[in-house]
Amino acid sequence: MSGVYGKCFDPTGARHGIPTFPWRLAPDGYATRRQLREKGLRPGGQPIAAQVMRINRRTGGPRVAYLYRVELALPVRPMTSRKWGALALAMLARRTCPSCQLDVGYCISRTHGVCGLCLINLPAQAAA
């Protein structure tokens, strides 16, 4: 068993507190939040059942993803009309330029804070 594999393999949870498996080698019946979401499920308040771990080559530190039991997962709650409306308003706010008040059709960069046209015209306005 390699050193890296040995650090990440603890099926009893004696070393890490919860069962730990190497990356991509978790047994059946466990899933991450993303994997649950793909199946239309959510953790539903259950505690973390296990984790998968791998050692980051650059930093030498571990990367961890938590696993949940699939049989204890609950179905995802459906979106209500109010949630859809709130999401639509939030996306509209991200697409609206604060300078020219236009919906530019894409999410405005938080770095510049204005749309591309206002960014081009910004130096001309500052010089005047």
Question: How would the blueprint of this fold be written?
Answer:
Blueprint: H1 3-8, E1 20-22, E2 30-31, H2 33-38, E3 41-42, E4 50-55, E5 62-69, E6 74-75, H3 81-95, H4 116-127
In short:
This protein is an alpha+beta fold and 128 residues long. The chain is built from four helices and six strands.
Poorly predicted regions are none
Mean pLDDT: 89
Number of strands: 6
Q: Biggest sheet, in brief?
A: 4 strands, mixed
Approximately how much beta-strand content do the residues carry? 15-25%
Distance between the termini: 70 Å
Percent of residues in helices: 25-40%
The shape is: elongated
CA radius of gyration is 23 Å
* Structural class based on helices, strands and sheet pairing: alpha+beta
The SSE order reads HEEHEEEEHH
User: Order of strands in the sheet with the most strands?
Assistant: 1-4-5-2
Given the structure, what is the number of helices? 4
Walk me through what this model shows.
The chain is of the alpha+beta class and 128 residues long. The protein has 4 helices and 6 strands; from the N terminus they run αββαββββαα. It has a 4-stranded mixed beta sheet. Strands 3-6 form a two-stranded antiparallel sheet.
Q: Which features does this protein show?
A:
128 residues; alpha+beta
